[in-house]
């Protein structure tokens, strides 16, 4: 994907349905790419009023500062990488772009990717303008018929919005995949998505509680963290790194 020189890629996991894990996907993507894949990431937390990612960072800093093993792990990681934890900016949907532009003008660090944790409802003030600035949209969908129809309608609306700009890209992916459901069901639904000419990634993310696993202290390696990449052992079978790898390969990052 071609980009303007010196301009980072703006990307967001976006949906009009809550509870699909877009904040978790944002954190896992940012941490995996920043700490494992040699990209430099900036995260913008626009999810008012909870600002979940910013709160997660604050909890982690406090936990790591009190845990000798985690402190040693963090020291080793940041020394080896020779870079700091990715910054997290707090913004409203209306102010997000101007805050990012100001940050990019002032920082001496070259940012490759800006991940926006956007509000969970499209009715939020400034949301349309914020979405119009994105280069890449990643839309999680699930096999629940009501949720799927809502997500597809949202994706079609995004597709119409970006139709005039071929540089902007939209990709859907299966999330919360129930292992008890037959694969054929997802294949049938996937054909329906394809008939709408909506690009669908190959990687399917299973429904699992491991996404909730944060740093708890006592040297415990995390899965979801703003300071560390997803633990490889815990990540096995989650398809998270496979999903992110597919995204970066598709976008040629």
TrEMBL record:
Residue ranges occupied by any CobQ/CobB/MinD/ParA nucleotide binding domain in the UniProt entry: 13-211
PANTHER family: P-LOOP CONTAINING NUCLEOSIDE TRIPHOSPHATE HYDROLASE, PARA FAMILY PROTEIN CT_582
Protein name: Cellulose biosynthesis protein BcsQ
Taxon lineage: Bacteria, Pseudomonadati, Bacteroidota, Bacteroidia, Marinilabiliales
């Amino acid at each position: 994907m071609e980009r303007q020189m010196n301009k980072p890629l703006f990307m967001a996991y976006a949906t009009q349905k809550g509870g699909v894990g877009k904040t978790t996907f944002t954190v896992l993507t940012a941490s995996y790419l920043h700490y494992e894949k040699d990209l430099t990431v900036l995260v913008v937390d626009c999810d008012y009023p909870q600002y979940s990612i910013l709160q997660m960072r604050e909890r982690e800093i406090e936990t790591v500062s009190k845990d000798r093993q985690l402190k040693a792990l963090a020291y080793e990681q940041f020394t080896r990488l020779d870079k700091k934890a990715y910054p997290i900016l707090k913004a409203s949907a209306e102010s997000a772009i101007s805050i990012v532009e100001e940050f990019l003008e002032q920082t001496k660090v070259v940012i490759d990717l800006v991940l926006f944790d956007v509000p969970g409802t499209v009715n939020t003030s400034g949301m349309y303008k914020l979405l119009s600035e994105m280069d890449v949209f990643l839309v999680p969908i699930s096999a629940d018929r009501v949720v799927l129809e809502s997500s597809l309608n949202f994706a079609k609306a995004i597709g119409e919005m970006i139709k005039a700009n071929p540089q902007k890209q939209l990709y859907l992916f299966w999330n919360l995949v129930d292992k008890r459901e037959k694969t054929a069901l997802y294949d049938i639904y996937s054909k329906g998505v394809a008939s709408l000419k909506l690009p669908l990634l190959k990687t399917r993310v299973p429904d699992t509680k491991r996404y909730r696993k944060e740093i708890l202290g006592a040297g415990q390696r995390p899965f979801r963290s703003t300071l560390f990449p997803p633990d490889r052992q815990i990540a096995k079978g989650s398809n998270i790194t496979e999903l992110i790898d597919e995204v970066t390969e598709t976008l040629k990052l």
